[in-house]
């Protein structure tokens, strides 16, 4: 608390002591920390945003991948960085999961970051192997009730988005599904395609190409509406669980204490970037849906998602690996 207060006071004193001190921001490159490995969905979308912001800000926005510990290593680096607007965080769904999954982090997601805006929503699909006898949510529910110990769902690891969505699905239908965690999404997807696990909730950016290639079958989307590229696939809500929606997302944050003027400019610039047809098209090609950023809306979304996943983690007894 003392550290956060000191950082806030320093940034405030500088702002008032030197009139127009931030008027020239940025006058050097900005670092965009992505707390996940290069090549994944978050990294790919972050690089689109970084390139566009570089043009608009007149300074290079450099993507800095800091993967590890479920995204907490990169987030901690930003939380402890200077509050000058030159280090930003590009985070994803784990931002609202880690607080309950790993309560002793050495920093506070709720207090150490200022929201700038949502970047993208990534629909999630419930998929099975292409040759699976399961062709619908109803089939999956029947199978799980008939032989609960034999129906499994894969994930990229304990506490991952796929794990939590699977638990939320199981609770909604009152099922006892067996969770099979993997060390990453790639091996989980490999075993799903091979039929070694029954099903999995997977971001459309990952599973979509496999569905189109005929290697997986999508039986539902865990989104608030049907996904345009898979319009014949019903939502989970349409398939017997009204109100069910659990998608992945990406958003932009600054360390707390960054002057309001800088946060407001970043929010405005991000909104302009995501309104560009070329950006929306690039996102759509990967399966992501560009957002309409608002710092206030993101703050409310983070609070509600953190509360929701905290309840799922508690009820399912999920522990970090």
What would you say this structure looks like, in words?
- With 321 residues, the protein is an alpha/beta fold.
- It has two domains: 2-122 and 248-316, Bordetella uptake gene, domain 1 (D-Maltodextrin-Binding Protein, domain 2, 3-Layer(aba) Sandwich), CATH 3.40.190; 124-230, 3-Layer(aba) Sandwich (D-Maltodextrin-Binding Protein, domain 2), CATH 3.40.190.
- The chain has eleven helices and eleven strands.
- The strands form two sheets. The protein has a six-stranded mixed β-sheet, with helices on both faces. It has a five-stranded mixed β-sheet with strand order 7-6-8-5-9.
- The model is unreliable at 12-22 (pLDDT under 50).
Cα-atom radius of gyration = 21 Å
> So, CATH architecture of the largest domain?
3-Layer(aba) Sandwich
Helix content: 40-55%
Distance between the termini: 28 Å
Largest sheet report:
6 strands, mixed
| Lateral arrangement of strands in the main beta sheet | 2-1-3-10-4-11
Beta-strand fraction estimate = 15-25%
Shape, principal axes of CA atoms: globular
Number of helices: 11
Q: How many domains make up the 3D coordinates?
A: 2
Helix-and-strand structural type = alpha/beta
Query: Can you tell me the residue ranges where pLDDT is under 50 for at least 5 consecutive residues?
Result: 12-22
Q: How many distinct beta strands?
A: 11
Query: How would you spell out the order of helices and strands?
Result: HEHEHEHEEHEHEHEHEEHHEH
Output the CATH topology of the largest domain: D-Maltodextrin-Binding Protein, domain 2
């Amino acid at each position: 608390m003392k550290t956060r207060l000191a950082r806030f006071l320093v940034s405030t004193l500088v702002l008032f002591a030197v009139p127009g001190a931030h008027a020239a921001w940025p006058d050097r490159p900005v670092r965009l920390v992505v707390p996940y490995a290069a090549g994944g969905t978050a990294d790919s979308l972050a690089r689109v945003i970084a390139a566009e912001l570089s043009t608009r800000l007149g300074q290079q926005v450099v993507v800095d991948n800091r993967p590890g510990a479920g995204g907490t290593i990169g987030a901690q680096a930003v939380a402890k960085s200077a509050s000058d607007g030159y280090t930003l965080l590009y985070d994803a769904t784990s931002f609202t999961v880690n607080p309950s999954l790993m309560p002793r982090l050495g920093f506070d997601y709720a207090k150490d970051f200022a929201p700038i805006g949502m970047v993208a929503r990534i629909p999630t699909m419930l998929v099975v192997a292409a040759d699976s006898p399961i062709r619908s949510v109803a089939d999956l529910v029947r199978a799980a009730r008939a032989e609960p110990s034999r129906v499994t769902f894969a994930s990229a690891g304990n506490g991952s988005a796929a794990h939590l969505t699977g638990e939320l699905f199981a609770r909604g239908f009152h099922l006892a599904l067996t969770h099979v965690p993997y060390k990453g999404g790639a091996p989980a997807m490999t075993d799903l395609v091979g039929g070694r696990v029954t099903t999995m909730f997977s971001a459309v950016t990952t599973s979509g190409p496999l569905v189109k290639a005929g290697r997986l079958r999508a039986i539902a989307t865990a989104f608030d509406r049907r996904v345009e590229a898979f319009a014949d696939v019903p939502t989970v809500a349409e398939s017997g669980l009204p109100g069910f929606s659990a998608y992945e997302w990406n958003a932009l944050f600054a360390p707390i204490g960054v002057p309001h003027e800088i946060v407001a400019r970043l929010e405005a610039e991000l909104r302009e970037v995501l309104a560009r047809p070329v950006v929306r098209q690039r996102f759509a090609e990967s399966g992501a849906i560009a957002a309409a950023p608002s710092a206030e809306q993101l703050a409310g979304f983070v609070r509600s998602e953190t509360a929701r996943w905290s309840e799922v983690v508690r009820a399912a007894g999920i522990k970090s690996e």
